[in-house]
Amino acid sequence: MRPKTTAIAALSAVALLGGCASLPSNSSPHVLRSFTPADTATPNAGPSADEEPDLLLRAFYAASAIPDGDYEAARAYLTENTAEAWNPSGPKLVVDSFGVTTLPGAAVGKRRFSVHGNVVGTVRSGGSFSPERGRYEATIELDQVDGQWRISSLPAGVVIERTELRNQYQPYNLYFFDAEDRELVTDRRWVRTQRETLAGDLIGLLMEGPAERLRPALPDALPSAVTFTGVKDGAFTFTGFGSVSAEDRAQFAAQVVWTLATAGITGPYRLVADGNPLIEGADELGTDDFVDASPLVETAGESTLYALIGGNVLRVDGRTTKAVEGQLGSAGDVASADIASDGEWAAVFGKPDDNRDDILRVGKIGGREHEVMRAGTFTRPSFEPGADAVWTVADGKRILRTVQSAATGELSTGEVEANLPEGVDGNISVLRLSRTGSRVVMVIDGKLYTGIVQRGASGERSIVNVLEYAQELGGSVVSAEWRPDGSLIVGTSSTSPVMRVEQDGSSMTALSSGNISAPVVSVAASPSTLYVTDANAVLQVPSSGADNPIWREVPGLEGMRALPIIAR
Asked: Is Cell membrane a UniProt keyword of this protein (predicted)?
C-alpha cells in the first residue's frame, strides 16, 4: 500500500504564492452558524372556495411543503386559532403517499379524518435527508367556518409526500474536506430557494458545517468568529478571517468554489475576507485554481477495467484481455480483488468449499506481495483513498483494516467497530468504501446499509450512524458499489435487477433491465460505464445517455461470467 498524497498541497501553493491563483452518534463538537434561507416567491396559495373537506386536507399537506413566510400557505387551511397554535418546527417527515379515510361519529359542521402513510425519511435542519422506516398515522379534525371547511385540530410538525419534496426542493452538493485535508466530501442537501439567492444560501449552509450525520468523518477548520456577511457588488464577503492560516483559507475557498460550480453558478468568483481578497493576490477564483481538489476528478477520464475469470485477473483493453503479472494473474484461485490506479492490489485467494481457510494478500502488479491473514471467508477487499489501507470482512462478522507502517513497511491489521442499528446482526456479504473513504456501504442479510467512517484520536476507525437504504428492496440485495458521482449501483435478485440509489437514500431508480437475468452478483462503475454480472455474463451500459439503454456484453469478455474491477 502506497503512502498518501494530499491535494491540499496544491491549495497551499495557491494561498502562499499570492497572485499565482490561476439519528447521530459519536459526533465530535462542531461550531454551527445559524442559517436562514431567503423566502422564495410563491404563487397565491390557499383553499379554493367551497372545497370538499378531504380535498382541502390533501391540499393542506401539499402546501406544507412550502416553508415561506413561516408556512403561510399551509396556515391558510387552518382555523384562526389553530393557525396561531400550530408549530411546524423540527424535522420534516416524508411519506411515500397519503391515505385519507373519513372517521365516523362527527357532529354537524365537523369532520374527522384518519391520515396515514409509510414513512420514508426526514428532512432535517439545513436540508439533509435521513432515510427512515415507520408508519405515519394522525387524526385530523375540520370545522366549517362561515360555510368553508378549515382544519381545527392537527399534530405539530410538518409531514409531506415524497413527490412534494421533489416538486418544491432541489438537491445540491456542499463540499467539506476530509480529516486528512485531501478529498472534498459531498454533503447532499435539499434546498428551496430562488435562483438569484441560491449562491448566498449555499454559502450560508457551508458556514453551518457538515450535516450532523457526517460530522464524525469531517473536521471543522474555521473558527467560530468567521461569518458570511452577504453578497456585495458581486463579491461574497466574510469577516473573522484574521487568525485563519493561508492553508485553511485555501481550503475554504476550494469548498466555496466547488459548491457554487456544481450548483451551476457560473464563475469566476470574488471572495473577500475582512475587506481584502480571501487569498492574497487572487481577486477572482475558479475551479481551475483548485483542480487538484476536484470532487469531479473521476468524471474527467477513463478508469482501467480488470476482470476476474477462472481464478485469475485479466486486464481488459479494447477487445483484448491479458493476464496481469504475478500471482494475481496466474494463481488460479483468486476469489476476489480490489486494484488501485497505480497497480496496488488486495486479493482473497482460495477456492470455494475446499474446507481450507482463504488467504488475504496485498501486493503490486508485477511486484512484491505479502500475506495478511487467513480466515474461513473474506468479503471482497476495498481500498481507502490512495491505497493507504485495505478493508475486508472475515467470516461475515469481523470488519478488518490493514495498514502498512511508513517506518518499517510491516503490515498490521486491526478490527473496525461497527455501530449497527438495533436488531441488525446478520452476516456482511459486501463492504465497499466510497471514493473519499468517508462512507461505507454494506450488504447485510440481503439488505442495504450505509455508514460514516469515524477516525479516532490514534488513527483507528469505526463505522457510525448506520442507516438502512432502499428498504423497499427487502432482502433481495446481492451486490453494491459506489458510483463516481456518489450514488450507489445496486444488484438484486428481484424483478428490478439493477437499481440506482441516491447518496442520501432519498430515492432509488430502477435502471434498464434490458437482457439482464437476475441475480446480479457483481456491479461496478467507471465515469462513463456501468458494469454488472448477471446469471449469464458480464454486461455494460453507458452511465448516461439513452433513457432505456440495452445492456451488452463487454468486448473481450463475451460469453464469460466475470467479476468486473475498476481501478481507482
From this structure: yes
* 329-376 tens-digit pLDDT: 999 999 999 999 899 999 999 998 888 999 999 999 989 899 999 999
CA–CA distance, 214 with 239 (Å, rounded to integer) = 26
Higher pLDDT, 176 or 19: 176
Give the residues across from 492 on adjacent strands: 477
* 159 and 304 fall within a common domain: no
User: Between the CA of residue 244 and those of 60, 105, 239, 251, 253, what are the distances in Å?
Assistant: 48, 66, 11, 11, 12
Dihedral over Cα of 201, 440, 162, 526: its sign: positive
pLDDT for residue 343: 94
Report phi then psi at 88, rounded to 5.
-90, 10
230 located within any domain: no
CA dihedral 311, 317, 321, 322 (to 10 degrees): -80
Q: Rounded to whole angstroms, how far apart are CA atoms 564 and 566?
A: 7
Query: How many domains does the structure of the chain reveal?
Result: 2
Asked whether residue 473 is domain-assigned, the answer is yes
List pLDDT tens digits, range 21-69: 332 233 333 344 455 555 554 544 689 999 999 999 999 999 999 999 9
Residues 164 and 308 reside in one and the same domain:
no
CA atoms within 13 A on the CB side of 17: 10
Question: C-alpha angle 167/127/245, rounded to 5°?
Answer: 140
For the entire predicted model, the pTM comes to 0.90
Distance in angstroms (rounded) separating the CA atoms of residues 417 and 440: 13
Of the candidates 335, 333, 312, the one whose C-alpha atom is nearest the C-alpha of residue 324 is 312
User: Within the chain, what is the greatest distance between any pair of CA atoms?
Assistant: 85
Which of 76-96 are b and which e, b meaning 16 or more Cβ less than 10 Å from the residue's Cβ?
A: bbbbeebbeebeeeebbbbbe
Residue 305: φ, ψ to 5°: -105, 130
Residue 538 has pLDDT above 90, yes or no: yes
Q: What's the CATH number where 85 sits?
A: 3.10.450.540
71 part of a folded domain: yes
Which of residues 124, 151, 168 is at a domain's end?
168
Enclosing domain of residue 357: 299-566
Q: What sign results for the dihedral spanned by CA atoms 394, 398, 404, 405? A: negative
With respect to residue 32, please indicate whether it lies within any of the assigned structural domains: no
For 234-381, strand residue ranges (E) read 235-239, 270-273, 276-277, 305-309, 312-317, 320-323, 334-339, 344-349, 358-364, 369-375
Examine the domain organization and report whether 163 and 303 are in the same domain: no
